[in-house]
Amino acid sequence: MSYPIDTGVKPKVAGFFDPDTSTISYVVQDPQSASCAIVDPVMDIDYAAGRISFKSADIVIDYVRTNGLTLEWLIETHAHADHLSASPYIQEKLGGKIGIGDHILTVQETFGKVFNEGTEFRRDGSQFDRLFKDGETYTIGNMTAFVMHTPGHTPACATHVIGDAAFVGDTLFMPDGGTARADFPGGNARTLFRSIRRILETLPPETRLFMCHDYAPDGRDVRWETTVGEERAANIHVRDGVTEDEFVAMREARDKTLGMPRLIIPSLQVNIRAGHLPPPDASGKTFLKVPINAL
After folding, report:
1. Contact of 216 with 224, CB cutoff 8 Å
2. Are 89 and 275 within 8 A, CB to CB?
3. Separation CA 124–CA 267 (nearest Å)
């Protein structure tokens, strides 16, 4: 497939690091207008206490308002397993449409069963305002963004390319961090390798890549921006010269040593609903389920 790459457009990108989940959310601004998008916003949760709050999201909202920006899109790169989405909360405050890759339907079907959601849980993606297909475009002010379906970490992972900037979600980490795990339901290491090579071989070397997470390996400072060229030269898992079979063997062996993410259970129940909490019961109380021996 041919994609409408335009590295001459250079959006202004502001990153916001959430230390509790090591997540980076972004405000992406059209350099020729006040239009912007927000990528992967975080809703805070004290899981032990069962309390949610919006400190992280309020910081992003304050940035948008202080800079006089108009929010057009809230972009989810995938249904995250390590943090809860704040997209509905931000939408209520600032407007905009919530979008995710169209393979969210697969994720909803899979985890609808894991959490025994029942027939009242819609598995058609209708909780989101837009489901993006591979190669589909959308606009942020004067900028045209396009979507690359990049599954492997999850079936619904997508990379959003906006001018010379690409937001890769969990598919890639910084060069010294390597790549995302591929052992969640619907994940696949071979598919992940092919998705990553598609990103690195389709986009020009100077393309800026923005990570959804950074875990500061070896105690370095947190970083979240690199380039296609830097990833091809130095990514410890998938640099040029690493074969597909080598990657799959490494990734599958590494994934066997990893525990489940601390917030996977609340995150997925919320994120398959586009960031909404499950509906309250007859008493008006809202609950999250803990499936036993299901993950």
Report:
1. no
2. yes
3. 19
For the entire predicted model, the pTM comes to 0.96
Which tokens belong to 36? 């912007």
Domains and CATH numbers, the chain: 12-271 (3.60.15.10)
Question: Could you report the per-residue pLDDT of 222-265, keeping only the tens digit for each?
Answer: 999 999 999 999 999 999 999 999 999 999 999 999 999 999 99
HSE-CB for 252 with a 13 A CA cutoff: 10
Question: At 178, phi and psi to the nearest 5?
Answer: 85, -120
Residue 253 and residue 234: Cα distance in Å, rounded? 21
Q: pLDDT tens digits, residue range 11-29?
A: 999 999 999 999 999 999 9
